[in-house]
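Consortium newsletter contribution from the modelling node. Members have asked for a concrete example of what our holo predictions look like. Here is one, prepared for the manganese (II) ion complex that several groups have been discussing at recent meetings.
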Amino acid sequence: MAEKKGSKLEKKLTIKQENSWLTIDKKQEKEIYTFSESYKNFLNVAKTEREVVDFVIATATKHGFKQIEKTKKLKPGDKVIVTSMKKNLALAVIGKTPIEKGMKILTSHIDSPRLDLKQKPLYEDKDAELALFKTHYYGGIKKYQWVNIPLAIHGVISRADGKLIDVNIGEDPDDPVLVIGDLLPHLSRKAQGKRELFEGIKGEELRLIVGSRPLKTEKDAKRKLKLNILNILNKKYGIVEEDLISAELEVVPALPSRDVGLDRSLVGGYGHDDRVCAFTTLMATCELKNPKRTAMTLFFDKEEVGSVGATGAQSNFFELCAGEILERLTPKYKYSTLKRALATSRAISADVAAGMHPVFKDVYEKQNAAKLGHGVVICKYGGARGKQGANDASAEYVGEIRALFNKKKIPWQYAELGKVDEGGGGTVARFIARYNLNVVDCGPPVISMHSPFEIVSKIDLYFAYLAYKEFQLAE
Ligand code: MN
Ligand code: MN
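And here is the predicted structure:
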């Protein structure tokens, strides 16, 4: 006999997929909205990897974490910070179980797609009589999205005298902002109309307008507009043009995070990918008390350009952190003990998933797509063109994570990025997996990923935090 829709057997046998807003009580609702306020604040004050590192250190310090160099020995319950070149770091809470029996690891990345200033950025356009900065974009952006919006510059300049100068222009309401101007539609038909969408604005066309006023006092100067900008920078930071060569100046949207939707159920902001996971893993680990296993939470740089470089997940930082901890627990440990501590560890690669776009639904495979408001997304594999480059977590490990979330009543959903031949992407999971450990991707879904104003759901944000916390608490 055929079963009717909604029948008992159907309930027993099929996946339950409910909008999480329907299942929460008043108390949780309040917690969700309060939590999202602190997240919005974080988004506004930590827009670059260096700023996230500062935020993580400040927050962890408030929660009793100490710089590992200041400790000689570690014991269960101790909390430490391991830093690296100011652009990535790790937190650890020592557990009761010996470390060689495995740690509980959370990883996120703290770099987001953006525009970097070129090392020789400044010039003046003689015809238009404007001073401009040239940029070199970082990560996978749709270039046309970065024009006509207020932009800020964050970063550092290493001056000739060795001093590191912090730069932050465009965030204070009294600051000026910078902008990349687009061409007016009246004259765009030929110049841009025939271009493909991704080339609507080309890389070399991403140039910031930084000034329009020549320096009056320098009558003999050849480039008065450029000189005026250099003069302003010199007065403010004591720098000359050559100092910009040893600088990291990142151009990010000068837009604060905002509630989105008439029901205020969403948060819009720059760089949810992957600061939403940086923040939620940070809060989870900071609140961890006496975990059974040693909890390690890593914040990586350079994920958006392939996890390369000294501060990316392909560096030796993870192994170094484990070694730093191990030598403070067991001073005469063997190299094989370190390898075993890594290989017996279990990890969640906390990174965002693609939330289904309501208009461009065709690129998603609806049965395996993530929806905003349906909880954290477990993603067994990523990759492209037939799982190329995918970590592909084991069935056993996905089973363990699924069972944990079900037991702790954490709403979760399963998703892939999109349709099989549509495209693809990767995370740090495959680089962590090199140590022969179990790792799976898990994080909230995002709409408008890699754009200057991405969207997440407040309820997914909150349950990501709870999911990470329960993961590190569990045996
Ligand atoms: Mn990411
Ligand atoms: Mn990304």
